[in-house]
Amino acid sequence: MHIRLILKFCLNEGIEMRVCLIAEGAYPYVTGGVSSWIHSLITSMPETEFIIFAIAAERKQQGKFNYKLPSNLLAVHEVFLDTHLEKQAKWGKRFHLTPSQKQDLFALVSDDEPVNWESLFNLIRSKQFQNVDEFLSSKDYYDIVQHLAITKYRNVPYTELFWTVNSMILPLFTIIREDIPKADVYHAVSTGYAGIVGTLAKIIHQKPLLLTEHGIYSREREEEIIKANWVKGCFKDLWINYFYTLSSSIYSLADEVITLFRKNKEIQIELGCREEKIRIIPNGIEVSDYQNVIRTLPEDRIRIGAIVRVVPIKDIKMMIQMFALVEQKLPTAELFIMGPAEEDSDYYDECIQLVEVLGIQNIHFTGMVQIKDYIGNLDFLILTSISEGQPLAILEGFACSKPYVCTNVGGCQELIAGNEDPYGPAGYIVPVLDYEEMASYVLKLCENEQLRKQLGQNGFNRVNELYKRSAFIKSYKQIYARLGGETIGRNRIRTT
Questions:
Q1: Would 381 disulfide with which of 92, 102, 159, 397, CB 3.0-4.6 Å?
Q2: pTM of the entire structure?
């Protein structure tokens, strides 16, 4: 754990409260998407103090922030999931757990019954669990895994099951033992580990808990695990059920749950969140921020853009395969993939190799850029993700009157086709992984300038009327005020 600490003299009479935003694998390490949303939320509420509880995969990310931290962001509390690798423990200790404690631990990995989260938190945060690795080397842990083996995994080598469960719960236990900064409202921006921290904060500090779910975290983990090579087939269900179990914690204890579009709400209800808790608040931007975006290059070729991180969940390989078909029929077309590639360097290398194997000439990986420097010269944009929430990248394109071709994930259908609004289609939707159908729509747009302009205008009208940042910020200000109230004193030094 590491805390970046900022001391502030809070002499501003407008300060109302302190909000702890809990994020996993996002702000302030990763740009775009959820991170951009968090940054926009903080910078748009200067009267509110924020703390970031940032969960990252590796300690090597410590302090490597990709955002200039706003003045009302008091601290970044950094937690790394690989911290446990530094610890050692002796084998064979007996913890003398009670039957109910054993049942709480078994429920966490068995998916047989709901987890008693408060009881489990109390156990893991107790003095006897000061060394988490010691428990995972204990006879009690051996008993739990043996019971799991007997009841569910008789045909699986015990040693493999033992280490699989160990790798699942060790990062979780490490997070649960973390100190939770004090705040007036806790706001998790996903379920999973962030949801666990939010649930823990609510139980420890007895403060309101808010969840905003952009994409459905457990569904995204399921998709990744199904495709993952690092998980053996016999253990895929174990991992998938585990992430659904983690998500259940915040669904049950959150005071309010925010989602971005109707389809997500239906999934949350299906996963056990009570409907009366859920409210839809879409993402938003201000089109005025893009009014000076202009074309600076000659209209001598078709330029296609993708505002996207180069990571597997964005399926850049499908994008490359699609563009190979486009380039064969339209050699003057160009594709600009605009976003960081450092997050998964192995995947980036695989994408470069695929470009070379397919003999593609006109794909440009720009890395991290100012989107406004590029988007004016683009004719339209694409998105090939296998999972999304409500992509800010699409809203950015619409703000510049650029149509989109994208896969049918998350809220893309509503953005492109509308939700019974009068604005008309703003592009095309294709099935996930179907690069041939996407190529056909991309070529259709390449060949018809008037169609591009009409679809782009439809997108602009939709975002200008229905997806305003001011409306999104106003909604969250109201939620924070309702949940937290004006509980913070004034005219004193603030620390965390």
A1: 397
A2: 0.87
